[in-house]
Amino acid sequence: MLIERQIAPYVVFSEDPILNGLRKISANKERIVFCVDAHGILQGALSDGDFRRWIVENPEADLETSCLGVANQNATSAPIETPASELGSLMGPGITHLPLVDDRGHLVAIAINRSDVLRIGKHEIGEGNPAFIIAEIGNNHNGSVELAKQLVDLAVEAGADAVKFQLRDMDSLYRQSGGSTAGEDLGAQYTLDLLSKFSLPAESLFEVFDHCRERDITVMCTPWDSKSVNDLADYGIPGLKIASADLTNHELLRDAASRGLPLIMSTGMSREDEIKESAELVRSLGAQFALLHCQSTYPAPFKDVNLAYMDRLEEIGDCVVGYSGHERGIHVPVAAVARGAKIVEKHFTIDQSMEGNDHKVSLLPDEFKQMVQNIREVEEAIGQRNARVVSTGEMMNRVNLAKSLVAARELAVGEVLTEADVAVKSPGRGLQPNALPKLVGRTVHRAMAEGDFFFQGDLTDSVPQGRQFEFNRPWGLPVRYHDHAALIEDCTPDFLEFHFSYKDLDVDMDSFFTKPLEMGFTTHLPDLFAGDFLVDLASMDRDRWERSIAEVQRTIDITRDLRRWFTKDEDPIMVVTMGGFTTDRHITPAERLPKYERIAEALKKLDTSGVRIAAQTLPPFPWLMGGQQYHNLFLDPKDTAEFAIQTDTKLCLDISHTKLAATFLNVPFSEAVELLAPETIHLHLVDATGVDGEGVQVGEGDVDWPVLAEQLDRLAPNVSFIPEIWQGHVNNGEGFWTALDRLEKWL
């Protein structure tokens, strides 16, 4: 049970239209809001179930109807002073949220029957959310407000979600006023001496907290006494941390829990019975809380860390669990996240040799940043317990490395397949070998040569075919020299786009044509050249840069030469992936500028007469040579559009790539299109999923095609396009025909 006192996400005014209530229900993700009058008096509860019942009974209802008109006006509530231990009995079947009111009926809090989530500031902590990473500054500011602010800034740069400090009132905390150490043991004398020198008073610490707000990082603090609890609550701290040393201090726990603030409690130095007792205490008080597994030695030996105890801690607390580490290095917190920790706390300093024992077990800013990065990578790798799917990169490698079912001999239309008619051969472009039982016994519906692949369409009675499509702009097909003739047997596109392999640049193009084709064409720079070479016009390595320029120029020359096989008198477009990729990380915006300048310099060295260069927009995680890497340029729509305008370089807007980039950058895809479409002379139309699922069939990914079509008609009218479905050419273009069928509705 948790008592939520930040009630704004759960409250609507009774007279608000029902649409406002639905928006709040969607935003808070709790499926309920509460109706109050202008004075905050509770008047009813509105759940998504209430709305569904109402709309079924009133199918013609006006969505301007008031929230109270739909709400349950007899919803159960309870006085705010009701003990948390009694609230559960007031929640009937299906009730998970109980409004708590004061003696005048004002809604002041909500009891929520769950313990698997913790809210601290803007962060929701728990299953399905990234780990909440705390940079424990503590007293590592060594009594300096300026150093404390510097540590906050460095924690922001390192990717911390929160910073944490400590507050003590020395007179109320220690048995001798002013932190006097007379008669104390050596260890206590050392600690008190440090605290006397380095503790910041509340007023100074609050100045640092204000700086945290300016830097938009959540601040937490450990109170070591009741006066500090009161000072922090009065300041408006979003959450309190209870130190391991105070886990058995029930007086302090009661005080902290009574403030309506979420608590994070470390369990170092405590026995299991003590942990149980304290967890039961704060639970009975209705506090939101989490338990951190902790080994309170500085530094902690690895043999004593015992991360497996987090599982037990979760059972004891029935709450969010995390890890507070004092061991050397960053690998144990990363392992803790892999084991389920939803909070990680590590000490943070700028100098491990400074006075004070915390510095010695603290991470330096670069180390903390590396830990954050590793944790985020591990979280990505953990994923979900869903049915396994084949990733884009795996699919590419499957095509190259796996085996397929192929015709063992020449087959005529109408023959019935036997096992002897089918062989298993590489590569994996066709049906996988395990489809053999489904294939045997079927009737062949297309003539096949020995070695031809069987495809999914061979298991059905109808397969999409080429036809004369109608669009409001020029459309084309992506082809290779060897398959272009077969793909245009049943349709006449406005142009063909030749996606060159590096070997295509060396063949005799004349051997693939018998007469000029009455259409136009575009070309696409090879993605890979001999020797695993990737074109990178942004490279600072002179040899790589000069070879990149040479390979682009060679492709331009071949594109110019190809014009004699096409009748359309228009300079062809050549799509170029300009480069700027990295193998280990994304570079910062500041690092991108010189690379864009390098590309601009390279473009000036090219002879592009008779050819229109189009820079392709790129995804954040390209699949290059069977593995995932990082793109940096032509990714962000702002700097891409700026480069296009400043250098007069037009774009090939690849919808899949840009949708992936928008998702990665957390910007609306429609805004990206608004920036890029006006600078676009060519389109690759294809869907996308997530941040790296490219080449997806139209209508089977995340793109909103009706909205996109409206934008393209308005911002890029008459701009040509191809359907660039991954493996769309197999089975005589089956993927292309499906995409074009679907696109015809919108274009």
Overview of this structure, please?
GO terms for molecular function: N-acylneuraminate-9-phosphate synthase activity. InterPro entries: AFP_Neu5c_C_sf (IPR036732), Aldolase_TIM (IPR013785), CBS_dom_sf (IPR046342), PseI-like (IPR051690), PseI/NeuA/B-like_N (IPR013132), SAF (IPR013974), SAF_AFP_Neu5Ac (IPR006190), SAF_PseI/NeuA/NeuB (IPR057736). Keywords: Carbohydrate metabolism, CBS domain. The structure is a single chain. With 747 residues, the protein is of the alpha/beta class. It folds into four domains: 2-112, CBS-domain; 130-382, Alpha-Beta Barrel (TIM Barrel), CATH 3.20.20.70; 392-459, Alpha-Beta Complex (Type Iii Antifreeze Protein Isoform Hplc 12), CATH 3.90.1210; 482-744, Divalent-metal-dependent TIM barrel enzymes (TIM Barrel), CATH 3.20.20.150. It contains 26 helices and 31 strands. The strands form eight sheets. Strands 12-11-10-17-16-15-14-13 form an eight-stranded parallel β-sheet. An eight-stranded parallel β-sheet has the order 20-21-22-23-24-27-28-31. Helix 22 (637-647) packs parallel to helix 24. It is globular, with a radius of gyration of 33 Å. The two termini are 54 Å apart.
